[in-house]
User: Fold this.
Amino acid sequence: MKVVPGPASKELGLRVAELLGAEAVQVGYKLFPDGESYVRFDGSVEGETVAIIQSTYPPQDKHLLELCLLSDAAKDLGAKRVVAVVPYMAYARQDKRFMDGEAISIRTVGKLLRAAGVDKLVTVDIHSNEALRALGLEAVNLSAIPLLARYMAEEKGLAGAFALAPDRGALDKAEEANKVLGGGFGWLHKERSLLTGEVRVEEKMLDVSGRTVIIFDDMISTGGTVIAATKLLKKQGAARVYAACSHPLLVGDALKRILASGCDGVVGTDSVPSSVSVVSIAGLLARELRDEL
Ligand code: R5P
Assistant:
């Protein structure tokens, strides 16, 4: 197997290749003056299984298209199998038709990936199982939550903290984190307006007075979810509140606004490069890819 570190995940891809002891095929890429993407393999992929590492964080459309170009070109150049390793799977939140007439975006993305020759997808903490199914591909969804929880326990000294899911959809994540932290877990009820995107967290009594709480979620985008949860937790007397996520998209000034809301710190993985991406998922991905060697 050869590893192809895509333009969006160059460092992560190189780390995965190193851990696997596999050859990394360099990729040349650029944008034409009109904004079109260009990629070129600088090494042979003929007869190989290739693992293309390319997260699809913003700009999502560009990163997705680069992935399609790489996969299609790999097949065209004789690769026998393409495994797309997409830690952050864009468009997974549009996994159903919430309002009449909407596109089910993740289904369309799945069609594009299949048409581009992707044989298997490896992703991390995809938004939902519905999204995973809608892709219509052989797919594996890995969890970075134990890595995040271990980081919080060992590097931040937060063993025994309460693990909180900001909505029911993230409950499995709080439960998983609790296996490492051991301080109990719970969840909130969250609603997001389909029209304005505004987040509202329902009042719910939690036993967090004087305690340290860590909010676990798949992603932080605008920060609306973490901010609403932090405010509620602080109101209920939580001593310290942290947020941990697999995909720190942190659009615009999200991080600044989260910290201003009373959150004591944010931690994420290198699925999305950012100032809080302190936990690496390279080992997690390499373990999954070992079978392809
Ligand atoms: C939604 O259900 C997700 O799990 C996240 O809670 C959400 O996408 C975070 O987005 P934001 O940071 O914009 O609230």
Notes: Residues 120 and 138 are 5 Å apart (CA to CA).
